[in-house]
């Protein structure tokens, strides 16, 4: 295993090319000597897919029983432009509900995973400060999340799992803090994003690594000449200066980290010997390219010597205020194909049960259509959890009553009050990942406000 | 800078290192400073430097106001004057300064208090001495007040080979080099040596006046094209006149024009403000990529950059590109069966992003707290009210066509109200206001925008965002309050005067006075600004093609923000701190590398080749001639970069590091030496963070 100490061995060299070669050789060496010592059983990874914009999960999972479908279609009429025809739905029958539902017709690939028991649905989950009923919501007798229905606020609360004041860190980042020792002293970042900075993986203690979703990742313009080495050294020196100026120091830290780790990660994500790359061969969608990069990092997990990794990727465009039918169909098709391919890649790598993929999204969307064949910002939504360790083929949490001004509606447009808190969803995932019970309140400080901390969607190991 | 001041006693010689304002910052320049024009004067109608009435450049300090007044706007007694700027020594010698004043006066040269007689007295001469070096430029400041009666103030100097004389205009400049550099960092697309000279000569106030009056570079009226390309709209490879899809169905030409304006337009500040406004009020080329539609949009922002915010909100609201982006266009009233209701998108984002935000604010931008909690500015009911207001509008009618309820898409001119498609019921607005039931889309829209513009949040909310974009990510509450006060009333009783707001932002002491810088001051340069700073500072030229092509990999794909939430949010927090750093949202390990690689490419490529498919293409190149001329004197070379790129703020340690690296380049390869130094400055976080 590589013990990466950024200011240690990497800084003694002045030649970036030589450094890269050095890192590569260490990686290869590592492959040869420690692969057996690090069995797949020691490894666990989480992959967070954030569906930016607020995915309309009311059309991702639709009632299929005739009476319930008719009620749905009476609100989402054919004329509204957002109705999904019953006979196009991909039927599923979750045992816990004992009734038929239908997946969005473009999710054929995930439908297969559902049927194989590797995909679960968590229904009507969302941001909560404390449990809340419609009566409490209308009477203002329970605390509401701040700035409901606002993209930025709700994205933040989903990623923080805190809805009464943003803490500046995410539940992924806090997970990385408490599970850091599981990586046995390896200083390589536990969190890796292929979708830019995000609150989810933000920790106050450990910076996430950002890797571009395509292309090379590395500093250009340095070779081994003494003149280049002098310039490289001066650059490194300058990065250590003016540390008393907060913004300068923060910028320097990011550049410094990027220079160091790009030499390690670039050969991995741009490897031409990956055994799973061809599985994504015909997929150009961004989410596929992102998940491919994540799969390639997982493929080379021994190189990094990490036993726990948290990945962040995203798919945007779900803010379907108008023209929802086409847009969402395209996005869900991309998502479905990419997730299924990613699952298959982890299966091929022998780590399908060591990698769990799950979705987050800003919020659900109004059941009632808005002018323009779209929907507006709502609240509770359904999310997907995928992996070999997932007790798939079932729905977890409470299925909402899809009635305008009904018991689950916060108003009269079909904005469901969540019956499961993000905190509970997160806690279930966190415990599988290895967060000890004693650390759960650190990761999810409001968890004790809710009844259960394990929704049961993982196979008991 | 106070900790750096030497303790002095009147009349004792103090040997000073030449510094500009700011701690330990040498202002010795490689090139000769611009010709003298005088000192920046600020005239106040109190004796305590409150109530600023007049700003002007005085050629010298030599006034006998008698019992009168310096200006009709100032009363004859109890006024004060502050002169600031730079003074150029003409000899290497101990200089003696003389003030003749009634009443109090104090004089700083190079940050040293040389004369201090800040008392009420009749006309009195005081002297002080300081050692200066010939040709070097030093910061100078004079503070003077008149209590009652005669008012006299005169500044003279002498040295062993020069008899006492009034300090002449030729030796005085209204701004130090560092002051000019910091202003240009905040208010232009980046300093150049020419602009630095100019700001030094005219001073901060006059330069701002010039900027407010500068001709608009803006965007041409791109030709109308239908939403679907006609069959003859084709590409002929390599022919710049046969690029119909690119030139009309993408933002390519608009983006190039943006960079060209930024490189050569006189209206630098207007462009910066328009760009800032476009990041508060956001549309994206991801939704509609028609050149003419986006050109019209950015022209609208540019024209309104120094206009009134209410006017801007009106034009934004009826702009069909915005209408399309946030679904106000063709937003129908609800139907009887209740299966369609007004679309909430524009209503919500207008309130959340373009005007007031989600929480009530104090004038200073801090959140109102009641019973330990923030107070929402609106709820779902208000969003529904505004959603109803914004019904009944459709695209402008195509010339020659007949208006219909849903006109086909057309983005030239304002949206039009179509009769009978407007929600007629009452509408709940902000602060409990309710619009009466009526079938009048125009009256409802105007009343609703007046309601928004009248909200107490608009001034602190918009002021803070503009400050963040131009000056600093973490303005003090006092700074926000001072600017918001001007937002609420420009002095003539008008709210929303953006020119007045921008002036207030840039003349504020928190922007201007480097001695107020703290460890957390400043802002990270956003990618577009960073790229332009580099090319402008290094005497470069660009047709915009290369920076345009790089903006996406830096997460600022020009005019294509990923959502209405812009490229980055204003409240992005630096992890582990309470500080905001909006631009840090798109600064990560991936983009950090790309920023450095951009610098590498422009610095180490002689000419990034012109794109033969672009009419009049010039490519992108830098010019290192003036740096190469200093290749034999690396410290001087670094000082020149410090001057034009870092407002003289570079630390000695950083200079030393760069000089060491330059000295490792071949002594005869002047270009390699220049490039090495330029690369190191341009990639440094000290340059990439503006302070």
Task: Explain what this protein looks like in three dimensions.
The complex is a heterodimer of chains A (461) and B (691). Chain A has 461 residues and is α/β, with parallel strands linked by helices. The two termini of chain A are 26 Å apart. In chain A, helix 11 (286-299) packs parallel to helix 13. In chain A, the strands form 2 sheets. In chain A, strands 1, 5, 6, 7, 8, 9, 10, 11 and 12 form a 9-stranded mixed sheet that branches. In chain A, strands 2-4-3 form a 3-stranded antiparallel sheet. Helix content of chain A is 36%, strand content 12%. Chain A folds into 2 domains: 1-37 and 219-269, no CATH class; 45-215 and 276-310 and 322-449, Alkaline Phosphatase, subunit A, CATH 3.40.720. Chain A contains 15 helices and 12 strands. Chain A has helices at 9-12, 16-34, 57-60, 66-75, 108-115, 134-139, 151-160, 171-179, 226-239, 246-269, 286-299, 301-304, 324-348, 422-433, 440-443, and strands at 44-51, 61-63, 90-92, 101-103, 119-126, 191-193, 209-210, 308-315, 355-361, 381-387, 395-396, 420-421. Chain B is of the alpha+beta class and 691 residues long. Chain B is built from 23 helices and 23 strands. In chain B, the strands form 7 sheets. In chain B, strands 2, 3, 5, 7, 8, 10 and 13 form a 7-stranded antiparallel sheet that branches. In chain B, strands 1, 4, 6, 9, 11 and 12 form a 6-stranded mixed sheet that branches. The longest helix of chain B has 21 residues, at 193-213. Chain B starts with 13 loop residues before the first strand and ends with a strand. Residues 1-30 of chain B have low confidence and may be disordered. Classes of the chains: A alpha/beta (461), B alpha+beta (691). Chains A and B meet through helix 7, strand 7, helix 9 and helix 10 of A and helix 9, strand 20, helix 18, helix 21 and helix 22 of B.
């Amino acid at each position: 295993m590589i013990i990466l100490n950024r200011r240690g061995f990497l800084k003694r060299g002045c030649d970036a090319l030589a450094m890269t070669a050095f890192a590569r050789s260490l990686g290869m060496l590592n492959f040869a000597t420690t692969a057996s010592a690090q069995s797949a059983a020691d490894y666990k990874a989480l992959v967070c897919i954030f569906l930016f914009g607020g995915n309309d999960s009311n059309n991702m999972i639709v009632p299929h029983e005739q009476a319930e479908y008719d009620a749905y279609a009476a609100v989402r009429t054919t004329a509204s432009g957002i109705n999904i025809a019953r006979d196009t739905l991909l039927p599923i029958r979750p045992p816990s509900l004992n009734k038929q539902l239908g997946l969005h017709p473009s999710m054929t690939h995930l439908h297969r995973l559902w049927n194989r028991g590797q995909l679960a649905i968590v229904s009507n989950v969302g941001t909560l400060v404390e449990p809340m009923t419609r009566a409490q919501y209308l009477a203002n007798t329970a605390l509401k999340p701040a700035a409901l229905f606002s993209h930025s606020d709700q994205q933040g609360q989903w990623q923080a799992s805190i809805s009464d004041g943003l803490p500046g860190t995410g539940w992924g980042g806090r997970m990385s803090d408490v599970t850091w020792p599981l990586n046995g002293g390896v200083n390589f970042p536990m969190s890796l994003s292929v979708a830019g900075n995000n609150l989810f993986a933000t920790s106050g203690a450990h910076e996430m690594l950002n890797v571009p979703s395509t292309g090379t990742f590395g500093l250009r313009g340095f070779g081994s000449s003494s003149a280049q080495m002098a310039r490289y050294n001066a650059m490194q020196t300058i990065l250590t200066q003016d540390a008393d100026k907060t913004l300068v120091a923060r910028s320097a830290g990011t550049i410094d980290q990027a220079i160091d780790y790009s030499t390690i990660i670039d050969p991995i994500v741009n490897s031409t010997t990956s055994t799973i790359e061809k599985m994504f061969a015909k997929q150009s969608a961004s989410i596929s390219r992102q998940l491919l990069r994540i799969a390639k990092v997982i493929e080379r997990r021994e190189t990094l010597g990490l036993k726990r990794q948290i990945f962040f990727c995203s798919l945007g465009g779900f803010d379907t205020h108008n023209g929802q039918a086409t847009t969402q169909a395209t996005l869900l098709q991309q998502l479905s194909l990419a997730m299924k391919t990613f699952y298959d890649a982890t299966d091929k790598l022998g780590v399908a049960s060591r990698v769990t993929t799950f979705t987050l999204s800003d919020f659900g969307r109004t059941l009632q259509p808005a002018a323009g064949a779209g929907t507006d910002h709502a609240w509770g939504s359904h999310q997907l959890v995928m992996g070999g360790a997932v007790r798939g083929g079932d729905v977890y949490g409470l299925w909402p009553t899809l009635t305008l001004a009904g018991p689950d509606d916060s108003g009269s447009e079909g904005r469901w009050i969540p019956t499961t808190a993000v905190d509970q969803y997160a806690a279930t995932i966190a415990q599988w990942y290895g967060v000890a019970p004693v650390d759960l309140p650190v990761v999810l400080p409001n968890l004790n406000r809710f009844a259960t901390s394990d929704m049961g969607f993982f196979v008991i190991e | 800078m106070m900790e750096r001041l030497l303790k002095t006693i009147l009349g004792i010689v103090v040997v000073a290192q030449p510094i500009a304002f700011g701690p330990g910052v040498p202002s010795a320049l490689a090139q000769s400073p611009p010709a003298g024009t005088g000192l920046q004067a600020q005239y106040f109608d109190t004796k305590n430097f409150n109530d600023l009435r007049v700003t002007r450049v005085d050629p010298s300090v030599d006034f006998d106001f008698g019992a009168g007044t310096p200006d009709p706007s100032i009363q004859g007694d109890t006024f004060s004057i502050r002169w600031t700027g730079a003074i150029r020594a003409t000899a290497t010698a101990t200089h003696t300064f003389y003030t003749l004043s009634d009443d109090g006066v104090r004089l700083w040269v190079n940050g040293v208090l040389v004369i201090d007689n800040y008392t009420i007295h009749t006309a009195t001469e005081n002297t002080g001495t300081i050692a200066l070096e010939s040709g070097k430029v030093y910061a100078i400041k004079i503070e003077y007040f008149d209590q009652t009666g005669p008012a006299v103030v005169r500044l003279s100097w002498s040295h062993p080979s020069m008899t006492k004389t009034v300090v002449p205009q030729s030796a005085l400049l209204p701004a130090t080099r560092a002051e000019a550099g910091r202003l240009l960092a905040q208010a232009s697309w980046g300093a150049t040596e020419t602009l630095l000279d100019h700001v030094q000569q005219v001073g901060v106030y006059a330069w701002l006046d010039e900027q407010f009056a500068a001709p608009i570079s803006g965007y041409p009226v791109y030709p109308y094209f239908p939403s679907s390309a006609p069959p003859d709209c084709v590409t002929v490879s390599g022919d710049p006149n046969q690029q119909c899809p690119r030139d009309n169905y993408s933002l390519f030409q608009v983006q190039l024009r943006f960079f060209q304006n930024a490189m050569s337009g006189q209206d630098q500040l207007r462009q910066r403000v328009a760009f800032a406004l476009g990041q508060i009020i956001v549309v994206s080329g991801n939704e509609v990529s028609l050149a003419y539609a986006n050109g019209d949009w950015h022209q609208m922002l540019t024209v309104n950059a120094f206009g009134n915010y209410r006017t801007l909100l009106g034009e934004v609201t009826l702009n069909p590109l915005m209408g399309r982006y946030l679904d106000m266009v063709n937003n129908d009233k609800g139907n009887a069966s209740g299966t369609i209701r007004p679309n909430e998108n524009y209503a919500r984002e207008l309130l959340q992003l373009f005007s007031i935000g989600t929480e009530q604010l104090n004038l200073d931008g801090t959140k109102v707290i009641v019973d330990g909690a923030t107070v929402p500015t609106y709820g779902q009911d208000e969003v529904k009210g505004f959603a109803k207001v914004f019904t009944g509008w459709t695209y402008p009618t195509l010339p020659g066509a007949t208006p219909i309820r849903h006109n086909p898409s057309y983005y030239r001119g304002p949206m039009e109200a179509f009769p009978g498609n407007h929600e007629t019921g009452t509408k709940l607005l902000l602060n409990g206001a309710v619009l009466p039931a009526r079938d009048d889309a125009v009256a409802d829209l105007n009343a609703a925008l007046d309601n928004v513009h009248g909200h107490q949040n608009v001034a602190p909310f918009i002021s803070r965002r503009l400050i963040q974009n131009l000056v600093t990510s973490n303005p003090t509450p006092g700074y926000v309050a001072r600017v918001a006060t001007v937002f609420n009333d420009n002095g003539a009783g008008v709210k929303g005067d953006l020119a007045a707001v921008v002036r207030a932002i840039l003349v504020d002491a928190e922007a201007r006075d480097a001695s107020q810088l703290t460890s957390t001051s400043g802002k990270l340069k956003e990618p577009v600004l960073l790229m332009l700073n580099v090319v402008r500072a290094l005497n470069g030229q660009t047709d915009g093609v290369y920076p345009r092509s790089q903006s996406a990999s830096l997460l600022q794909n020009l005019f294509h923000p990923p959502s209405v939430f812009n490229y980055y949010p204003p409240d992005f927090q630096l992890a582990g701190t309470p500080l905001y750093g909006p631009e840090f949202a798109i600064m990560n390990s991936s983009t950090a590398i790309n920023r450095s690689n951009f610098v590498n490419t422009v610095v180490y490529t002689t000419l990034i080749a012109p794109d033969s498919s672009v009419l009049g293409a010039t490519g992108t190149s830098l010019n290192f001639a003036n740096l190469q001329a200093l290749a034999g004197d690396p410290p001087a070379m670094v000082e020149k970069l410090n001057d034009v790129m870092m407002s003289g703020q570079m630390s000695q340690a950083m200079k030393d590091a760069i000089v060491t690296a330059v000295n490792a380049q071949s002594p005869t390869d002047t270009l390699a030496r220049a490039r090495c130094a330029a690369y190191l400055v341009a990639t440094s976080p000290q340059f990439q963070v503006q302070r």
